[in-house]
């Protein structure tokens, strides 16, 4: 009799666990569908990103915006050996990323999608692009120049930049919030390898972050650029 009762308890406990797992799985699927729905939803305003966790801030007041995070001053050399600073991007909507020329994986897709965007906006004087090498000891001005020629990079519109490793990494981690691994480990010696494309407005605020290896993100960037143009 006791064994029978134990069997019944085990049966109902097992059924309860299965039910909980099914309910959890169902909720995860629903949440996933909701995230996809939000991501694909057409919007007419873009948020501001102020922190490394990319929590969106919607419609801050003018006073709040004055205190918001901006991309700080920087100074690097581009593929032509010219000095590139914030002034070269001031008043432009631009897309930034981090890469290295010998990367055989995600950087290839990143560059392909950046090139697609360059082609789309080749006649648009409001848009620029900047790609920072994370392997500056190898990616010299000369190497970047050859890479740019091979990848059909317009040096007037798309800057491939190199410089001191510490300054590039500091900019990636503290300004663009681009190093996901660093957020978790806080290891300053780690190598940056990110697939993010970062959309920055004419005032230096981060307004969008995208998985730059995905072709469909190109379309989303296009939509968001048009929104920024109307601000």
From TrEMBL:
Key word Metal-binding present: yes
PROSITE patterns assigned: PROKAR_LIPOPROTEIN, THIOREDOXIN_2
Binding site for Cu cation: 103, 107, 193
Disulphide bonds in the chain: 103-107
GO molecular-function term, one example from the UniProt record: metal ion binding
Membrane spanning stretches: none
One Pfam family named in its UniProt record: SCO1-SenC
Keyword annotations of the record: Copper, Disulfide bond, Metal-binding
Domain Thioredoxin: 65-230
Recorded family membership: Belongs to the SCO1/2 family.
Protein name: SCO family protein
């Amino acid at each position: 009799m006791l064994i029978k009762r134990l069997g019944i308890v085990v049966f109902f406990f097992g059924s309860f666990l299965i039910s909980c797992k099914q309910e959890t799985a169902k909720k995860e699927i629903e949440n996933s569908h909701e995230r996809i729905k939000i991501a694909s939803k057409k919007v007419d305003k873009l948020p501001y990103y102020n922190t490394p966790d990319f929590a969106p801030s919607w419609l801050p007041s003018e006073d709040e915006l004055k205190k918001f995070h901006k991309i700080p001053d920087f100074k690097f050399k581009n593929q032509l050996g010219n000095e590139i600073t914030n002034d070269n991007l001031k008043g432009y909507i631009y897309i930034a990323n981090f890469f290295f020329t010998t990367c055989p994986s995600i950087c290839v897709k990143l560059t392909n999608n950046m090139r697609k965007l360059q082609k789309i906006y080749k006649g648009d004087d409001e848009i620029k692009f900047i790609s920072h090498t994370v392997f500056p000891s190898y990616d010299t001005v000369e190497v970047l120049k050859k890479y740019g020629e091979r990848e059909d990079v317009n040096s007037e519109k798309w800057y491939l930049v190199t410089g001191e490793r510490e300054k590039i990494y500091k900019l990636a981690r503290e300004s663009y919030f681009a190093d996901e691994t660093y957020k978790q480990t806080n290891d300053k010696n780690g190598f940056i390898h990110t697939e993010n494309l970062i959309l920055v407005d004419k005032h230096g605020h981060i307004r969008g972050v995208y998985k730059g290896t995905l072709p469909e993100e190109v379309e989303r960037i296009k939509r968001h650029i048009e929104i920024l143009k109307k601000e």
